[in-house]
Amino acid sequence: xxxxxxxxxxxxxxxxxxxxxxxxxxxxxxxxxxxxxxxxxxxxxxxxxxxxxxxxxxxxxxxxxxxxxxxxxxxxxxxxxxxxxxxxxxxxxxxxxxxxxxxxxxxxxxxxxxxxxxxxxxxxxxxxxxxxxxxxxxxxxxxxxxxxxxxxxxxxxxxxxxxxxxxxxxxxxxxxxx
Length: 178
What we know:
By secondary structure, the chain is mainly alpha-helical. The protein has a single domain, classed as Up-down Bundle (Ferritin). 70% of the residues lie in helices and 0% in strands. The protein is built from five helices and no strands. Helix 1 (3-30) runs parallel beside helix 3, helix 1 (3-30) packs antiparallel against helix 4 (93-121) and helix 4 runs antiparallel to helix 5 (132-158). The protein is elongated and about 55 Å long. The chain starts with a helix and ends in a 20-residue tail after the last helix.
C-alpha cells in the first residue's frame, strides 16, 4: 500500500471535513428556527464524529496531520462566506440552497472516503477496528436527506409564493432526519 499517497488523500479529506463541519455549524446557526436547523441538530454531531473517526484512522496508520492544509482550508471556509447571495448583509434563501449544495458534495466525498477505506481495510489490519460499512450507510442516509432539503431550499429560493414551493422538512420516524 502506498502510504505516502494515502497520507495525502487522508489529509485532503481531513481538511475537507473541517470545512464541512464549519459550514454545517454556520448553516445550523442561520437556520435554527426552521427545518434545516432541525436536521442539523443531528447532522452536525455526526460530522464531528466522522472527523474524529478520520483522525483515528490517521493515528492508527501512524500518519501526521498536515497543519498547512488545515490552515488553508480554515481560511478558505471563512472566505467562502463572502459570496454574494442577493442580500448585502443578511442570510438569504440562496445562501441556504448553496450551503446545502456544498454539503451534498462533501457528503459524496465522505462516501468515497469510507468506501475506499473499507476496501483498504481488507489489506491493512490496522483499519479493521473501524466500522466503515456503518459510516457508509450513515453517509448515504445523510446524502438523501441533504438532497431533499436542497431541493426544498431551491424551491424556496427560486419559486414565487403560489408556484409550489414547499419548504418544510418532516423527520423520519427514527428521528434521525431520514
